[in-house]
Amino acid sequence: MKSYVLWSSAALLLAVTGCSNGTTTTTDHKPASTSVSATSNTTSGATIQITDFSKRTLSFQKAPQHIVALSNGDLDIIYALGGTAVGRPNSNEPSVVPAAENVQQIGSTHEVDLEKITMLKPDVVLGNYPMNEKDIPAIEGVGSQLLLTGANSVQDIQSQITLFGQLLQKQAQAAKLNQQIDQQVAKLQQETASASKPKVLLVYGAPATYMAALPNSLGGNILEAAGGSNIAADFPGLQNFPQYAQLNTERILQANPDYIFIMTHGNTEEVKAAFIKEMQENAAWNGIRAVQNNQVEVLPSDLFGTNPGTRVTKALDLMHQKLYPAK
């Protein structure tokens, strides 16, 4: 029996780090602390001080008006707080934030378009920790500041909301958004407290390149918060990407998951077809309950292929509905 599903694409690992899918912060990272030295930005000389996820302290004389977001999760949070952006991530699809549809596209966390950012003259660029640490000198060189965050959990998203609320001086709105997330998580926990939790293999990948998402990834955290049991919980994490593990066929067969969910950035149908083809090449997969019951599905990329920002409540709802379908 083939013990491992073989794959080796480093490109996917880079994609994981760049799209704020919860794979960019280290496992021992604590949510960013935030502080504000003045609560009013109308007072002369008032300064907003914020500590980002890289432990750097950034200072602003007032709430930034010209904001560039390198990820859709950051973009979503800024608009949910009542702010706007002058630059958003590249996308071939409509913006995840309809109000930002006509905003200038400026690259992404993978590849920052410094020329376009320079022309926009932003007060702050919202980037990914640690992937965009290397871009700090370049961003500062064009007269802006680079604020770094990331998300490996629902709590990390809430820390982002709190931090951006401080940045925009929208603390009340941030608290309200976080309260809504807290209520959603508490509701799902109450509903599934005494339930027999469905067993799930959560896969992150692209054709020929797949990894198991662990509980310390954003997708894995959403899965458990929605009432699922991650069969890869005790799989050893990859050295450079500890939120993900190699797919071990023997252990997957032993766990016999009820569902196999796939997260991806790419064409969902292509990814699903490629994954099914790979399973078919190893007859052992046919014995898995999820395969027998045709419960192999690609999750929406805007909610699970990247950090969904405040729309994490929708991701939680969708995951819960798939785990506990109406009878």
Question: What would you say this structure looks like, in words?
Answer:
With about 325 residues, this protein is α/β, with parallel strands linked by helices. About 35% of the residues lie in helices and about 15% in strands. Strands 8, 9, 10, 11, 12 and 13 form a 6-stranded mixed beta sheet that branches. The protein has a 3-stranded parallel beta sheet with strand order 3-6-7. It has a two-stranded antiparallel ribbon with strand order 1-2. Helix 4 (about 135-140) links the parallel strand 6 (about 125-130) and strand 7 (about 145-150). The longest helix is centred in the middle third of the chain and has 22 residues, at about 170-190. It is globular. The protein starts with 9 loop residues before the first helix and ends with a helix.
In brief:
This protein is of the alpha/beta class and 327 residues long. It has helices at 10-18, 72-80, 114-120, 136-141, 154-168, 171-192, 218-225, 249-255, 268-280, 289-292, 301-304, 312-323, and strands at 48-51, 57-60, 67-69, 87-88, 104-105, 124-128, 145-149, 199-206, 209-213, 229-230, 244-245, 259-263, 296-298.
Mean pLDDT across all amino acids = 87
Strand coverage percent = 15-25%
The major beta sheet can be summarized as: 6 strands, mixed
Number of helices: 12
Structural class: alpha/beta
**End-to-end CA span:** 37 Å
Which residues sit in consecutive blocks of at least 5 with pLDDT less than 50? 1-18, 20-44
Q: Care to count the β-strands?
A: 13
Rg, Cα atoms, Å? 20 Å
- The level of helicity is 25-40%
Order of helices and strands: HEEEHEEHEHEHHEEHEEHEHHEHH
Report the principal-axis shape. Answer: globular
